[in-house]
Fold this sequence. Notes:
Elements: H1 2-16, E1 33-35, E2 44-53, H2 60-73, E3 78-87, E4 90-100
Parallel strand pairs: 1-3
Antiparallel strand pairs: 2-4, 3-4
Amino acid sequence: MKLLRMLLVVGALGNASCASSRLTPLAPETATRVYFSQLPARPYREVGHVEATGSIFTSRPQLLRQLQQRQAQMQGDALVQVRYDFVLWWPHASALIIKYQ
C-alpha cells in the first residue's frame, strides 16, 4: 500500500512538471484569405459560422482545409476569427465566413 501511494505521488509530480507547446503555421497564400487575429480592412458581411472537428490524428492544417472547403461551398471570400481548440481530446476549429461588399 505504501508503495502504491509513493508511485501515485511520483506519477502526479512527474505529470505536473510536463510542458508542451504547439506551433501552427499560418495559412499559405491561397485564394482564400484567412484572418486569425486581424480583421479585413474592406467592408464585409458575415454569411455563416463554420466548425470542423477531427480525430485525435487530425492536424491543424487539415482542420483549416476543412474550414476552407465549407467557405468555398458557401461562396465566401474569407475566414475570420479562426480559432483552434479541443473538445475533450478531439481537435476542433471554428471561424466566421465573410463576403466582401
